[in-house]
């Protein structure tokens, strides 16, 4: 029989806890940049979409000048996107 059979399990649980909240702070920083006092009525769907776009552009070292939309993007730009 093991004397300390639960110690290894507890150690693994403790080691899986995040050691920093830097990732969460980064997300809050992006959301704060998006949702300003002048744009405080932006809905959660728009904030989420802008966060995804910012993340994608950052990961691929793109900016709005270098981005080349394809025809699929233009098909989605309809009056329905504003409803």
TrEMBL record:
<feature type="domain" description="HAT C-terminal dimerisation">
    <location>
        <begin position="4"/>
        <end position="51"/>
    </location>
</feature>
<keyword id="KW-0732">Signal</keyword>
<feature type="signal peptide">
    <location>
        <begin position="1"/>
        <end position="24"/>
    </location>
</feature>
<dbReference type="GO" id="GO:0046983">
    <property type="term" value="F:protein dimerization activity"/>
</dbReference>
<protein>
    <recommendedName>
        <fullName>HAT C-terminal dimerisation domain-containing protein</fullName>
    </recommendedName>
</protein>
<dbReference type="Pfam" id="PF05699">
    <property type="entry name" value="Dimer_Tnp_hAT"/>
</dbReference>
<dbReference type="InterPro" id="IPR012337">
    <property type="entry name" value="RNaseH-like_sf"/>
</dbReference>
<dbReference type="InterPro" id="IPR008906">
    <property type="entry name" value="HATC_C_dom"/>
</dbReference>
């Amino acid at each position: 029989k093991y004397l300390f059979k639960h110690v290894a399990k507890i150690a693994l649980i403790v080691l899986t806890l995040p050691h920093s909240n830097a990732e969460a702070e980064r997300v809050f920083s992006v959301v704060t940049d998006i949702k300003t006092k002048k744009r405080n009525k932006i809905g959660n769907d728009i904030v989420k979409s802008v966060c995804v776009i910012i993340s994608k552009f950052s990961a691929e070292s793109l900016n709005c000048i270098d981005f080349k939309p394809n025809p699929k993007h233009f098909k989605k730009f309809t009056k329905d996107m504003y409803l």
